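Reading a protein record of the kind used here takes little practice once its layout is understood. The fold follows as a row of integers, each naming the local backbone shape at the matching residue. With these conventions in mind, the following record can be read line by line:

_____
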Amino acid sequence: MEKVKIAILGFGNVGTGVWKILLENKKEIMKRSNYEIEVSKILVQNIDKKRDIELPSGVLTDNINDIINDDSIKIVVELVGGREEAMEYMIRAMKAKKHVVTANKLVIANYGKELFETADQEDVLFYYEASVAGGIPIIREIKESLTANRIEQIIGIINGTTNYILSKMTTDGSSFDEALKEAQDLGFAEADPTSDVDGYDAVYKLAIMASLSFGTDVDHDSIYREGIRNISDIDIEYAKKFGYTIKLLAIAKEENNKLELRVHPTLVPSNHPMANVNDAFNAILIKGNAVGELMLYGKGAGDLPTGSAVVGDIISILRNNVKPSDLKILNDEKDFKEVKKWEENESEFYIRLDFKDKAGVLGDTAKIFGKNNVSIVSITQEVEHQDHATLAFITHKSVEKNIRHSLEQIMELENINKVESIIRIESFK
């Protein structure tokens, strides 16, 4: 059986996961790829660092040129993370006529077009399945299984860290800080959790999925973003009372050739399957005009789930059953689709106000909502202290700008202290 040499750039969690899978599933991989895969080089920062895995002598290197200039290496797996350095390594590998596999959503969301153009020019393959949802094969699902469909919407829990935090806050009554600390202790969250808890990670992944699904160039800066730092235990309890569970959702919808793209905390009906995706698991709901609704569920991160997607891409390259152009995020003849401004989006809303417990507040508030075409479905009032109380609303579907105008006017009322929370609701209709 023919042998193929590959190189791995970076040997953190995912890199070690790839190594373990290639070693433990060697026979199965050989049968499915018709190749024996040899990891010839692994790029690391410190060759002398102690590692739990014993590696053959000469495999580790701290010099990228040892990989780029080695013509016997046919596939480069980029797992160093970050942006500029990873981008440089991938471009250099392609220009050296090496196929490239990556799990780097940050680079694809920012430089996808350049990477695919380089792959085309150099006639090499570029795969990126692991960049969006770890072990969930969402890229192949969109590009292969659903090609007969016009995709209408994608709604997903695509960040395991935030889902773990919200799950702990919901089921265990943990505060945000407590749940974040636990996620960090377990390795689900980085020491600096900004990318996850502020929604950036989900934005990059949504940009990739939306570009694939809707055949247009999606700039990640055009995606509306809110993180979960401001979600409180009070909001979680109110959500339960109204029959909802709070999740960080990534939402992409197309209607009349316009895109609605947003990442934010969302109230999900508690009887919907998405509400029961807990801990660090991910789930993605896809709606096609022919197939209807499909939901993919699984581990969205971790060494072995993400490593599984990476090794799957390596095997696909060895099978060579697709051309570089088949895996592009964008088609050469792509449509331009406008992204709606966030204030034009429509959804139902949960709104929580802190007010002085005086007569007439509810009536004045409801009157302002009515003047701005915001219809109220449900109201709950609970007195928390002697001199002020909390008022929580659920609205019918409303235009975002009408909600904002209403709240600006409500804040001018004498007895309103603060708008504590505004969280959108997804009814999956």
In short: DSSP finds 15 helices and 18 strands in the chain. Residues 357 and 387 are 6 Å apart (CA to CA). Confidence is low (pLDDT under 50) at residues 321-332. The longest strand covers residues 244-255.
